[in-house]
């Protein structure tokens, strides 16, 4: 599984660096920066998980990798964020689902688990909501500092947050039935 993970990571790096280069050529520097930033973040996360031997299942790393690839290649590279509000909502829900599960596994690798299975599933849901809200703040700050237009008003922010809560809830349900063990 390690070799498959490294091969997929190399694919992601090559694919998204090419996407970022194409975006720069088209004059979309902010979008290229977003693609590169998410790539660097995920590559660092994956390498930290592998090198520190954190207890994150490989299938969750693949889910995160797919999320980052969809965000960068499809969302920015194929311009789906500009042409489809649905795509943005689905990416918020799917990204929150993926990264809430990964973040929970990283946390439980560092801090001992505690509480009932239901409590931990609710924690995963809350973690997803927090990550979604934090990403909305990041989008806001990016818009203010770089002059981009990732947020399109209160309705956009509200529906993004609702999608984040749905993704977090689904992550909690998934964790309850497939990831968490009984205390």
Separate helix tally = 7
Gross morphology is globular
**Rg result:** 17 Å
| Uncertain segments | none
Report strand %: under 5%
Order of helices and strands: HHHHHHH
Residue-averaged pLDDT, rounded? Answer: 93
Explain this structure to me?
It is built from seven helices and no strands. 84% of the residues lie in helices and 0% in strands. It is mostly helical and 183 residues long. The longest helix has 30 residues, at 117-146. The model has no long low-confidence stretch (mean pLDDT 93). Helix 3 (58-77) packs antiparallel against helix 5 and helix 5 crosses helix 6. The chain has helices at residues 2-25, 29-51, 58-77, 80-83, 85-110, 117-146, 154-179. It has one domain.
Keywords for this structure?
mainly alpha, 7 helices, 84% helix, 183 residues
Brief write-up:
By secondary structure, the protein is an all-alpha fold.
């Amino acid at each position: 599984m390690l070799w498959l993970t490294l091969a997929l990571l190399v694919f992601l790096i090559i694919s998204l660096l090419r996407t970022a280069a194409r975006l720069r050529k088209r004059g979309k520097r902010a979008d290229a920066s977003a693609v590169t930033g998410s790539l660097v973040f995920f590559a660092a996360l994956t390498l930290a998980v592998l090198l520190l031997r954190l207890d994150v299942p490989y299938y969750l790393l693949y889910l995160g990798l797919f999320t980052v690839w969809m965000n960068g290649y499809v969302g920015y590279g194929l311009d789906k964020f500009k042409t489809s509000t649905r795509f943005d909502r689905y990416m918020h829900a799917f990204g929150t689902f993926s990264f809430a599960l990964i973040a929970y596994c990283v946390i439980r690798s560092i801090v001992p688990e505690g509480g009932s299975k239901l409590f931990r599933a609710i924690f995963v849901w809350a973690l997803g909501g927090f990550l979604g809200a934090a990403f909305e703040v990041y989008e806001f700050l990016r818009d203010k500092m770089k002059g981009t237009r990732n947020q399109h008003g209160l309705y956009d922010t509200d529906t993004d947050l609702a999608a984040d809560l749905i993704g977090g809830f689904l992550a909690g349900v998934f964790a309850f039935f497939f990831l968490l063990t009984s205390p």
